[in-house]
Amino acid sequence: MGDALIECVPNFSEGLDHSVVRALTEAIESVAGAMVLREELDPDHNRSVITFAAPPLAAGEAAFRAIAAAVKRIDLRSHAGAHPRIGAADVVPFVPLSGGTMELCVEIAQALGQRVWTSLGVPVYFYEQAARSHERVRLENVRRGGFEHPRLAPDLGGPALHPSAGACCIGARKFLIAFNVNLKTTDLGVARSIARAVRESSGGLKAVKAMGVRLAASDLVQVSMNLTDFERTPLDVVFDAVRDQAAQQGVEVAGTEIVGLVPRQAIADAASRSPQWRDLDPALILENRLEAAAKAKMKA
Questions:
Q1: For residue 226, how many other CB atoms are within 10 A of its CB?
Q2: pLDDT average, residue stretch 253-260
Q3: What is the pLDDT of residues 30-56, one digit of tens each?
C-alpha cells in the first residue's frame, strides 16, 4: 500500500442537526492519518456529506467509526428529505487518489462491509466497482424503494433492514462531481423535465445522472446531478445544457452548487471554454484542500 491515499465521501441521512454531523466528523478525525477536507449539511435534502482522505487502513477504520456513530444517532423512522436514501450511513464510496488503485478501494469496501454487518448488524449493499452483480453496479438500482420498500435484498445481512439505520451502500468508484443547478421557479415539473433531458439513462449526456427536487427552504427547485466522468462530459457542458433547457421553458438559473470537492483538472478544463469557471472558490478544489490539510497536519 506504501504511501497510497484514498478519498472517502460518506453521505449521511442527517442535514438538520449540526451536533449529529459534528459527532460523525469527530469519529472520522479520531483516526490517525484521516484528514477531513469538507463537511456539508443540506436541510432540504436532509443529508450531510463529509469528504476525507486517508491512507488505506485509516480510510476503512475512519469510515467504520463514522458509520457506527450514524447508526447510534440517526433514526430513519423519523427522517424525511428530498433526497433518496436507504440508510443512516447511506452511501460510503472509496476513491483512489495518489498511489491508490481501484482494486485497493474494492478491497477496503469489501472488508468494511463485512465489519459493518458483523459488528453493527446493519445490512450492506456493494455498488459500482465493488458490486457483486451487474444489477447492483448503479447506485440508483441498489437504493430503489428506499428504507421503507427496498427492492433488492442486501449483499450481506437481511433480508430485513436494520429497524432504525436501514442499510449501508458501500462502493468503490472513480471521482464523481456532485453538481446542482437551482432554478428560479417553484414548478417541480420543470426541474424533472430538465433532469430527464440531460441524464444519460433518458438519452441525454453521457456519464450524467440527474433528478429534479424541491428546495422548500428557498422556494426554488433544483436539478441535482452526479457527473460520473467529467472527462467525458465536462462541468461547463452540463451547466450549459441545463441552462438552455431551462431557457426553453422560460426559466432562469438561480445559482449552482458543488457538493463535496472537485478535481483541479475539471475546473481547468471548464475554464478553458467558459470564463465563469475561473472564479470558482479555490476551497472547493480537491488538491487545494489536500495541500492545506497536509500543511496543518505538519504544524500540529
A1: 18
A2: 94
A3: 999 999 999 999 998 999 999 999 999
Q: Among 18, 83, 134, 149, which one carries the catalytic annotation?
A: 83
* Single-letter amino acid code for the residue at 282: P
Q: What is the pTM of this model?
A: 0.93
Q: Is position 83 annotated as part of the catalytic site? A: yes
pLDDT in tens, 138-189: 999 999 999 999 999 999 998 999 999 999 999 999 999 999 999 999 999 9
- For the beta carbon of residue 188, count every other beta carbon within 10 angstroms: 16
Q: What is the DSSP string of the chain?
A: -TT--EEE--EES-SS-HHHHHHHHHHHHTSTT-EEEEEEEETTTTEEEEEEEE-HHHHHHHHHHHHHHHHHH--GGG---SS--SBSEEEEEEEE-TT--HHHHHHHHHHHHHHHHHHH---EEEEETT-SSGGGSSHHHHHTTTTTS-SS--SBS-SSPBTTTB-EEEEE-S--EEEEEEES---HHHHHHHHHHHSGGGT-STTEEEEEEEETTTTEEEEEEEES-TTTS-HHHHHHHHHHHHHHTT--EEEEEEES-B-HHHHHHHHTT-GGGGGS-GGGBHHHHHHHHHHHHHH-
Length of the chain: 300
Rama region for 166: left / alpha / beta (φ>0; ψ in -120 to 50; rest) = left
Delineate the domains of the chain, giving CATH numbers in brackets. 6-172 (3.30.990.10), 177-289 (3.30.70.670)
